[in-house]
Amino acid sequence: MSASAAGRPSLVIVGAGPRGTGLLERIAANAPELYADAGLDVHLVDPHPPGAGRVWRRAQSPLLWANSEAQDITMFTDETVDMAGPVRPGPTLHEWAAVDGRSFSDRRLLGSYLTWVYERTVAALPPGVRVHHHARRALSVGGPREGRQQVWLEGRPRPLLADLVVLTLGHLDAEPDDEQRELAAYAREHGLVHLPPDFTADSDLTALAPGEPVLVRGFGLAFVDLMVLLTEGRGGRYQDDGRGEPVYVPSGREPVLYVGSRRGVPYHSKIGYDWEGERPPLPRFLGPAEIDALLARPDGFDFRRDVWPLVAKELGFAHYHRLFTAHPERTTVPWADFQKGYAAAGDAAGAAALVAAAVPDPADRLDLDALDRPLDGVRYGSYDEAQRELRAYIEDDLARRHNPLRSQDFAVFFGLLSVYGQLVRLGDVGPWWHGFFSCLASGPPAPRLRQMLALSRAGVLRFLGAGTTVEAADGVFRARSASVPGDFVEARALVEARLPGPTVERTRDALLRGLYADGAAATAGGLLAVDPSDGRVLDRSGTPHPRRFALGPHTDARGSGAFTRPRTGGPAFRQNDATARAALAFLGALSCRTAA
């Protein structure tokens, strides 16, 4: 059916969570300029509630928190976002919910905020734009490049007809890889429990028996959710020890969690004080000009060789700018002199020599390797020794991240946000960078780490250490770590505490899987390849599809989140705006041709 026969242009957005809602907000903001007084049908396709989506839906445990302070969560743009469209300000979660800005809300409250944003956005659309929510799954998309697309939905006999389709699918479920299939088969054969990578809130944890040891691989945010659901979620509670520290009181229904990972430690704590004074003037060593140069390289670029040195120098600049300007008594030269030498340093060794001479205390120097892998080369004589030492590590990390005298750590956080915003233009740069960013900038709230310490002291949580590996042998699972050589822990249950890796090849999403199988979608590092300028989906020849777009973590232009910290130029907002404007320009031209 043609656009003229249909009478009204149509846009289908597959995925109505925060990213789909953010795109719709940008459509509402840009429509007065690009699509005023024209009719348009917008179809939102998602089995979960619009706004909240799957991750932030109300139907989940109230014990699960958002991982950012309420004052740091917004769905609204400000003047720091580098975009062509207009700024449409709105409240942060903290302002909307009238909660303490430093608090960490539960996910259901954040879901209510997102629902409100969605409803406000729909109300702000021009009168001729109608929104239709289809609480179904999208199964496939087809249609000619120059004609209307057909989006087939589960349980619907006829497709939605769309002049444009935007995929805002969020995080994807995935079929298990070879290792996970082998572990699952071994578990079935020997009557063991194996829980593969999954969204922890959706996992069935009932098979993890009280008092039984459970091996857990993964020490990030998925583990924090697991820890909460298997302790407080089973009736345990915390009480104050009289000094402000929690003591865990078990219910008796908890398993014993043995947790390990490549790092062997949790992500660094959220910073627990407010920023004061001047922010580092970023970008300095990794900005648009440097990204342009990387993209112009005829032989491409290697992240470790060509990009990481610029990242490291940028983070170092942020760190030392703060140290020299806010804590000059801990330096030996004026900032102007140090800055000049730092800019002139030709390599990491030169910068390190400069720092050693100008910053006497090693605790004031930035060591990115130590921040990323603090247990490299560390060995313990027993797992009991490892428990004491790793509790001390977490206590030290908490103390430092709550000490404003170490505010150079906060400056590095701003440096990470700046770097992330620049790297989006390079497409996907591999999983290492995202893991490094998460470790430093997206760690758990301090109360969760204090609960972790309390669980460790209560014997409910045991640390395995770094370089954790798991094998299936002799009818059980065994875990070893590089931190405690020669020793191992065995259990009849294994939990992979991490999200499924983003992969189009193994995704359980039928629509994406079909596009990939047909050659209508290309991948980069396992992610959906898109044009970084506006999110158009690339086919295997590298050609952008004129009528298909994609935004979010399933693409190689993934940003650091669908919502972001205010006044940090969120790259997701910039991407949403570019896609919204491209879509409205296309649909506006189509509407004019139809009217004519």
TrEMBL record:
Chain spans, region Disordered: 542-570
SUPFAM superfamilies per record: FAD/NAD(P)-binding domain
Residues of the FAD-dependent urate hydroxylase HpyO/Asp monooxygenase CreE-like FAD/NAD(P)-binding domain: 12-171
InterPro entries on file: FAD/NAD-bd_sf, HpyO/CreE_NAD-binding, L-asp_N-monooxygenase_NS-form
Pfam families documented for this protein: NAD_binding_9
Protein name per UniProt: Adenylate cyclase
Organism in which the protein naturally occurs: Streptomyces ruber
